[in-house]
Amino acid sequence: MADTSSSTVELDGTADLASVMRDGRRTINYDPPHLNPVPSRQYYFYLMLPAIIILACITIYPFFWLIYMSLHKVDIGGAGDVWNDFKNWTRLTRDSKFQDGWWLLLKYSAMCMFMEVGLGVLLAVILNNSRAEKILVTIFLMPMMMAPVIAGLVWYYLYNGTFGWYHWLLESAGILGETSILGGTSTAMIGIVIVDVWQWTPLITLITLAGLKRVPRDQLEANMVDGAGPVRNFFQISLPNLYPFLLIAILLRFMDNFRFIDAILVLTGGGPANSTKILPTYLFDVSFQFFKLGRGAAIALTLLVVTIILGLILVRVFDSPASKTGQTQAGN
Amino acid sequence: MFYAPKNALFRRVSRRKFLELGGGVATALGVGSIAVGLNSTIFRSPVQAQSSDAAKWKQYDGSKLVFMSENTPPSFAIRDNLQAFYDLTGIEVEILTDDLPVVQQKVGIDLRGGNADFHLNYVQDKPIGSPFADFYADLTQYTGDDTLPQDPEGYGDDAWFENFLTACGVYYEPGRIVAFPYDCAVACTFYRQDLFEQLSKDFEAEYGYRMEFTDDTTWQNVQDFAAFFKKVREGGRDDIPYGYGQHQGSFAWTTQLDIQRMLFANGQWTEFDVDDKLGAKEPGPTKWGDEQSVLIMQKYKDQADVSHPDNLANGTLELNTVYQAGDIAMQVQYHEFAASIEDENTSRAAGGKTAYAACPKGDPEWIVGDGQAVNGCNCGIGGIGINAAASEDLKRAAYIFAQWAVSKDTQLHVLKELGGTPTRKSVLEVEEVAAARNRPTSMPNALTFEAVYDKGIRDPNFVLGPKIPEANEYHNIILTEVQRCVSGETSAEEACEEIRWQVDDMHDL
After folding, report:
1. Is B311 within 8 Å of A184 when comparing Cβ atoms?
2. Is the CB of A273 less than 8 angstroms away from the CB of B114?
3. Which of A100, B95, B139, B263: disulfide with B269, CB 3.0–4.6 Å?
4. Which tens digits make up the pLDDT trace of A65-112?
5. Which domain does A304 fall in, by range?
6. In a shared domain, residues A66 and A151
């Protein structure tokens, strides 16, 4: 019999494995040759350096430049920038358009969000596993493919009080009088919200639909065995599983609503009587209509800071135990 | 379902290869468009004062210029006729056109950034000229240069209609000309003569005077007309349109012009105590908030109450569409729109139904103090100016185009082709233009010439200002506060006081 007293053997990568096995040795300490040594952290840093430089140029440098601008009276191509004793900032405290802009932005975002999430989820539930799911999803996605400025123009014509088809429809139905939806200070906001809802509800539908595909069937079936109907099943099983997906959708739409102004500029330009002048629209006016770049920078910074704070809050909610429960369930 | 060949092209091209090819094509297109599309070129063949006219025109043969302009008829007509300029000079000109607010942003960034991507600019008096006047070349250095071709009619005040050169070419200091008058949009009254005749008796029975437009028709009369039309319509006559429509919408400048006409008509009220035609970089405190402005703001609101119900949605273009659709019987509109009104294919107000008159006159009872009642008329005079940041040769080449574009022959051509709006007096002296003032006419804009050139633009009716560097912010303040007042959010006093506060704050006062 072969000698089995020695239970370990050192392999240097050149040893004959078959002979080792033949000898009956059971434990092998294999030290493979270091053909690809573990790179140092410095090595990774150098690899990332070009990307870091590009990133710095396109984000970090403009960010600090924005702060600089907000502290100066900026005169590109003129006499140069002049320090103006925080005037751009102090002015914001008495600027009613700035303050109204915030209020309108929050109102607009909230209205869009509620309608888009509600309708988006409803559509996703209806579409999920329906016979015509693929074709309907394709059709529903079409508005999203449209450039916001084109969407704005299309709706501008539909809303038009003289020849707009939707205006005629709403007027004939007795919902609107002769004043078009964009011509009233109380209705213009609804008009622009409808456009946003029309264009971006499909995104929520798409994300929710992806979430619904991952809802575990065994949970649904178990709940049904317990006597749950489709509605109870949705609220008890599907919705908790959708939680992380909805948070992503809300985060995306929230960020978009804080920066998309294309359709609003085309539809109302912020009017009538500033009733749709959400903050980004006012920022556009100040910077590129009045060329007050310093004041514009101050407004932009407030927008940036609030966006970051609200984004962080949303991410924290995303990381909350309730969300994790949803994720775990979805992962099952 | 579909037949896919085994050796299909898409299977032979790897993803990497596809990306490489795509990237290469995109880069080549990008570089190509930058090189070909954006770059100007300049070639010069030196000439002397004694050189022939042909040599002077041809001295920049082979050069290329870019002209950024508003999408108005002259630019379209000139673009269609660029071959004539190319044949004359050998200079290639690219004319880019867009809506005025976009043009203002683009040229603003170009001018203030010290670039010269657009060598020639459309200098609309207040939206572009007032904020950017310092960034344009002084054209007087070229008007006397005998190495450049010059217009035999010259460029002095007498060559243009009254006030035009000052309106678009002179800012803050006399003597320096930054633009030649290129086109114009002057306000006058468009009204439905057929409806006026139809309803005149009923109106007279109620108001005690005839419903007609003359040079002495006042803003109070217009308000009466509008109220009457509204009453008839609301009495069940769906075939009768509303009486009037204001310039609101989102185009701030035209709303400012709309209320300014009424303000100036009643006592020649202006916003600042400065030379209205020259303007001022530091105009001092505004007069908004005084008794006259509050009274007229109230009258303007009263007028809105009897206007078309969709008043707040209708900017200048939309208002004209409303009139074309036959939904209002009167509008104070810019005379360049007459061509669209007289087009029977697109307008229900065509075919001799529309007549043109000067802007309404002020009403003595609307005047606080002892000011004069006039036919307050304003306008947008679009100039053509040269970017001061361009090289000297580019500026000289641009000057050749600028003076050609505002010549009598070019303006006559534009008037005939697309319904232009001449700025040179001599165009109106052409026999066929004089004849076109009466129906039937092949130049519909000429129907407005009496109201516009013979009356509106002449002193004491003409108002321009305020020419201030912050003109665009000023227009925006006016738009917002006027709309808030008209929609009932604020009273006339509150609106005027808010304007006063915001305008003075804008000027750090």
Report:
1. no
2. no
3. B263
4. 999 999 998 877 666 788 988 999 999 999 999 999 999 999 999 999
5. 96-331
6. no
| C-beta atoms surrounding A19 within 10 Å | 10
> Is A290 in the B-facing interface, judged by CB distances under 8 Å?
yes
Cis peptide before A148 (omega within 30 of 0): no
Percent of chain B predicted with pLDDT > 90: 80
At A212 the pLDDT is: 92
| Global ipTM | 0.85
Contact B461, B162 (CB under 8 A): no
Beta bridge partners of A82: A73
CB contacts < 8 Å between A and B, how many? 97
Q: What are phi and psi of B220, to 5 degrees?
A: -65, -40
Note whether B487 contacts A285, CB cutoff 8 Å. no
Question: Which pTM was predicted?
Answer: 0.86
Q: Does A184 touch chain B (CB under 8 A)?
A: yes
Chain B hits for A292, CB-CB cut-off 8 Å, are: 473
Do A184 and B476 count as a contact with CB atoms less than 8 A apart? no
Which class would CATH give B186-378+465-506?
alpha beta
Distances (CA, A) of A203 to A126, A161, A247: 15, 30, 13
Within 8 A of B107 by CB-CB distance, chain A residues are: none
CATH of the domain at A188: 1.10.3720.10
d(CA A300, CA A68): 12
3-state secondary structure B472-486: HHHHHHHHHHHHHHH
Q: B135 Cβ partners below 8 Å, 6+ apart?
A: A77, B111, B112, B387, B388, B389
Closest CA to A182 of A210, A225, A153, A204: A153
